[in-house]
Amino acid sequence: MKVSIIIPAHNEEYLIAKILADIVSRTPLEIVEEIIVVDDHSVDTTASVVSKFAQNHTAFNIKAVSNNTPAGFANALRFGIEKARGDLIIHLMADECDRISDISLMFNKFKTSNADIVCGSRYMESGERNGGSVLKGFFSRFVGVSLHSIINIPTRDCSNAFKMYRKKILDKIILNSNGFEVSMELCLKAYLLGYKIDEVSTVWHEREEGSSDFKMFKESSGYIRLYFWAIFKYFQSRMYAVKS
User: Fold this and answer.
1) H or E segment to which residue 200 belongs
2) CA atoms within 13 Å, Cβ hemisphere of 65
3) Dist. CA 116–CA 199, nearest whole Å
4) Which of 32, 157, 221, 225 could make an SS bond with 121 (beta carbons 3.0 to 4.6 A apart)?
5) 62-78: burial string, b at 16+ Cβ within 10 Å, e else
6) So what's the pLDDT on residue 208?
7) Are 19 and 36 in contact (CB under 8 A)?
8) How far apart are CA 75 and CA 52, in angstroms?
9) What is the enclosing helix (H) or strand (E) of 39?
10) Cα–Cα distance between 183 and 194 in angstroms, integer?
């Protein structure tokens, strides 16, 4: 069992080598199948930076692939999943916001549990969310914690992109999202289909360089739509079970 690490990247020439170096130094080589950087229609040197880094770190199977579908995080992620060969898949943001050392914790959770998805949770005990917009932080915490209470999903942070999945379940889930909410869609659909979810605490940091592609008011509609969709589907399935 090995992990394919997928990193969608749009114009990240200044940060991409840093996150790759972090992965190489903090993730055991024996658990890594490959590291795939999906160059999402960048107009800078992101792809060439990745290629140069790969040449200097040949022990890890690092490669840059160009997203040949329309630009956007969701499409880049889907493209990376199609290319991945590992039994497990984790996707990282290219801005170093995720705690890379937790990849090993997630991997070990798969070894000791029957989970199909392991979520990195900022909102469980010992988890943290540092920096960034107060409004965005309140919104993501409310979504995760309230869905945990309302529909009993076994994570308090379903909106966090930092998750590890069994590849075989990703091949069975149809994704409709076009934005960053695709990570939440994956988690909710897997849960409603009966797949087992677990979580480990993680620490998230706002990016220190450049600017995020996430735009609060533009992206929030997708999260809100999924929030109410999941609640409706959950109670619909419970009512159907009672009638049956």
Assistant:
1) strand 197-201
2) 23
3) 11
4) 157
5) bebbebeeeebbbbbbb
6) 65
7) no
8) 25
9) strand 32-39
10) 17
- How confident is the model at residue 213, as a pLDDT? 47
pLDDT per residue over 45-60, tens digit each?
999 999 999 999 999 9
Q: Is the dihedral of CA 88, 105, 219, 221 positive or negative?
A: positive
Calpha distance 48→50 (Å, rounded): 5
The residue ranges of the chain whose pLDDT is under 70 are 207-218, 241-244
Q: Which two tokens stand for residue 118?
A: 């392991």
Q: What is the SS3 assignment for 75?
A: helix
Cα radius of gyration (the chain): 17
Helix extents (H) in the chain: 16-26, 46-56, 73-83, 102-112, 134-150, 167-170, 182-192, 216-243
CA 127 from centroid of its chain's CA atoms: 16
CA count, 13 A, side-chain hemisphere, 14? 5
pTM attached to this predicted model: 0.91
Separation of alpha carbons 105 and 99, rounded Å: 11
